Amino acid sequence: xxxLSDRLDQAVAAxxxxxxxxxxxxAERTQESARRIHERLAVIDAARANIEALGxxxxxxxxxxxxxxxxxxxxxxxxxxxxxxxxPAEGWAWQHxxxxxxxxxxxxxxxFPPGPIAIDSKFPLEAWQALRRAPDEAARAAAERxxxxxxxxxxxxxxRKYVCPGETAEGALIFLPSExxxxxxxALFGPLVAEAARRGVYLVSPGTLWAVLGAMxxxxxxxxxxxxxxxxxxxxxxxAEETGRLDRRVASLKRHFAEMQTxxxxxxxxxxxxxxxxxxxxxxxxAEAPVARAxx
Length: 296
Known about the structure:
Radius of gyration: 43 Å
Number of domains: 2
CATH topology of the largest domain: Trna Endonuclease, Chain: A, domain 1
Number of helices: 7
Strand order of the largest sheet: 1-2-3-4-5
Structural class: alpha/beta
Shape: rod-shaped
Distance between the termini: 30 Å
Number of strands: 5
CATH class of the largest domain: Alpha Beta
């Protein structure tokens, strides 16, 4: 009985040790899975915050200079103010150097397609000013010929320098600092403007550039939203993977508990049988004791 009891105690102790070790390992795996889930949830919250920040981003209108007939740096100042007002800081670069060795006044960083778009703001104003100040028809005709030559040469320079296949978009922009200049070019030199457009060089005024920059800003925001959405989708997939792993580990833990319960029930049955056997043995000894005394 003592040996049987010792073996029973050893079996119960071994079962308890194995059960404790299994429960500890399962608890560690469960804690690790929970920690990873919390990390993924933190990343998802950060991505959601970025999306909300992008959705609620609002730009303010800055003081745009009026349509003055100026020259030199006037176009650059006006262009830079408009870019700063309409586009995020990372969406454009000022005085950007291209791989062909040229430097454009501004580069709008759009994704392919269409790709980054270079902007030139140094349109020659001398011929246009001479045209507006022409005292007679002869001077006006001479100013128109000069202006047509200036337009064609400037378009050639922009198309050659600022359109780089694989690096920039297939077109470039020429910023005209005056709505009046833009209107005169389309009214007096329509064929030249159309020819420039066929070569991928587009002449924009402050008003048209304002609308173009609004469309570009929407495109940039859409690209960033798609990027954040893809990142969020990847994180959700990882979270689903961790959740599946947690489900499998919980199922394994349930299986271990079921096995433990079966073993405990088996131990209880064995103990009951041993107790019953001991009771039967004790009953036999009590029955044989009077017979032995009578024989003496």
